[in-house]
Design a protein that fits this description.
Radius of gyration: 23 Å
CATH superfamily of the largest domain: Aldehyde Dehydrogenase, Chain A, domain 1
Largest sheet: 7 strands, mixed
Number of strands: 21
Shape: globular
Bound molecules: nicotinamide-adenine-dinucleotide
CATH topology of the largest domain: Aldehyde Dehydrogenase, Chain A, domain 1
Strand content: 15-25%
Number of helices: 15
Mean pLDDT: 97
Number of domains: 2
CATH class of the largest domain: Alpha Beta
CATH architecture of the largest domain: 3-Layer(aba) Sandwich
Distance between the termini: 68 Å
């Protein structure tokens, strides 16, 4: 059994000073597959000190030098893509092909960022003033478990591209994956102290990042609740915040849509990563006049979506990541039943045919109302709430009646009509007649309580720079 007992600080793997250990559990077998020794305040403070010391020299590197580093980081991750995928499968249990896709995508973040950096305006002119977009200093990155590599690489890439140094606290339940990824990053020969990675809990290591005066910006991806805690904890030192938080995204199917396409797509949008996706479209808005037709197609689409073990090539869904997540999903399914929504497929308990593992039953409720718990709160599992509407205006109003604003989806036979509806939805991203987030340079992030700031391309780079105005630099 693997024991992860080191952190990566100042260019070296060093033993953890924190001594508390935590079991890493397979979501497929429920057996202990590893242990992680959790860092404490001393470990993260050492990492922040190293990042602070590395900043002056690193912030003066050229775009070309940083481009070479991003290329090396990409190559180093790709060199071990199979091992990384295997670790992700072990720790998360998600289907192999999907896990591999996410790993490759994580490596690609370095190349996409390299390309975006090459055309980023680090120097701008306004009137007679030159504006230089300067790095902020030490970035404190805190990441969730649901796509560990994507989030770690997705934060390191723009932080480095803009000349910042970084400390990362990944999700503590992803330590096996983080260890291999860190070995890859270490092999890329980035100057010591520029990248530091410390395992630990949110309440100890994360909280220190939030309050430490030497952290200039926090780049956080995770739940809205923890995002608010970080915002509170970081207020005393007035850090910049980039927060990518939760969602309860609406998917509006208009009455002129091709239901044979739109309904299977709705299931894929809701249940991607077994429903453990921040942009999952978990509120499905269906015209009341076509509800019966939708019901039949929904049942068919769910039964065609295979749930299975990671090595099953036909499996689209796997187990939930942990006992905690499984219990949360059970809690919400019970809440849907108690509130009177109609269960048309799925329900409580483990998926039929699985004796162990956190395999929840993909579940669809129809007749849900937008004020029900299952329609208001993020569940983070394969549970879809179908809400009927009478008019287009009502559909838009229901879609926007949420504290969240991360993503939204619209399907219609008339592209102009779909675009008109899309323009009225308050969300960081609206996908029209499609379900895949496939434009890597499109900004990603939330309105309202889904967050502050944007990831991807130039929008992502903007989060990590501060404009410095040099007045009188040019003559009018
Ligand atoms: P989480 O908020 O529980 O944890 C995220 C990270 O925050 C972990 O590393 C955790 O250790 C840390 N943390 C916990 N308490 C902390 C504290 N007090 N101070 C500092 N750090 C703390 O989220 P999770 O369960 O790991 O991930 C699922 C959530 O992430 C969902 O809400 C999902 O919507 C969200 N998410 C959002 C996006 C996005 O881009 N908007 C992407 C993926 C996941």
């Amino acid at each position: 059994m693997k024991v992860i007992d080191q952190h990566y600080i100042n260019g070296r793997f060093v033993p953890s000073q924190g001594r508390e250990t935590m079991d890493l559990i397979s979501p497929v077998t429920e057996e202990v597959i590893g242990k992680v020794v959790l860092g404490d305040e001393r470990d993260i403070r050492d990492a922040i000190t190293a990042a602070k010391a590395a900043f002056p020299a690193f912030s003066r590197t050229s775009i070309a030098e940083r481009g070479e580093m991003l290329q090396r980081l990409h190559d180093a991750v790709m060199a071990r893509v199979d091992e990384l995928t295997e670790a992700a499968v072990q720790e998360y249990g998600s289907p192999l092909a999907a896990s591999r896709g996410r790993t490759v995508f994580a490596a690609k973040a370095f190349l996409l960022t390299k390309e975006a950096m090459a055309s980023f305006d680090f120097e701008r002119v306004t009137g007679t003033t030159k504006v230089v977009m300067e790095p902020l200093g030490v970035v404190g990155a805190i990441t969730p478990w649901n796509a560990n590599y994507t989030h770690i690489c997705g934060k390191i890439a723009p932080a480095l591209a803009t000349g910042n140094t970084i400390v990362v606290k990944p999700s503590e339940i992803s330590a096996l994956q983080t260890q291999i990824l860190t070995e890859c990053l270490a092999a890329a020969e980035i100057p010591a102290g520029v990248i530091n990675i410390v395992n630990g809990t949110g309440t100890i290591v994360g909280a220190e990042i939030s309050s430490n005066p030497d952290i200039s910006i926090i780049s956080f991806t995770g739940s809205t609740g923890v995002g608010k805690t970080i915002a509170r904890d970081s207020a005393a030192t007035l850090k910049r915040l980039a927060l990518e938080l939760g969602g309860k995204s609406p998917n509006i199917i208009l009455d002129d849509a091709n239901f044979k396409e739109a309904i299977p797509r709705a299931i894929q949008i809701a249940f991607s990563n077994t429903g453990q996706a921040c942009h999952a479209g978990t509120r499905l808005l269906i015209p009341a006049s076509r509800l019966e037709e939708a019901k039949k197609l929904l049942i068919e689409a769910v039964s065609a979506t295979k749930l299975g073990y990671p090595d099953d090539p036909n499996a689209a869904l796997g187990p939930l990541v942990s006992r905690k997540q499984f219990d949360t999903v059970q809690h919400y399914i019970q809440a849907g039943i108690d509130e009177g929504a109609e269960l048309i497929t799925g329900g409580l308990g483990r998926f039929e045919g699985f004796e162990h593992g956190y395999f929840a039953r993909p579940t669809v409720f129809i007749g849900a109302k937008n004020d029900m718990k299952i329609a208001r709160e993020e569940i983070f599992g394969p549970v879809l709430s179908v809400i009927a509407y009478e008019t287009e205006e009502e559909a838009v109003s229901i879609a926007n009646d949420t504290i969240y604003g991360l993503a939204a989806y619209v399907s219609s036979g008339d592209h102009e009509r779909a675009s008109r509806v899309a323009s009225q939805i308050v969300a960081g991203r609206v996908l029209v007649n499609k379900g895949v987030h496939d434009d890597p340079y499109a900004p990603f992030g939330g309105f309202k309580q889904s967050g502050i700031g944007r990831d991807s391309g130039h929008y992502g780079l903007e989060e990590f720079v501060e404009p410095k105005a040099l007045l009188g630099f040019t003559q009018a």
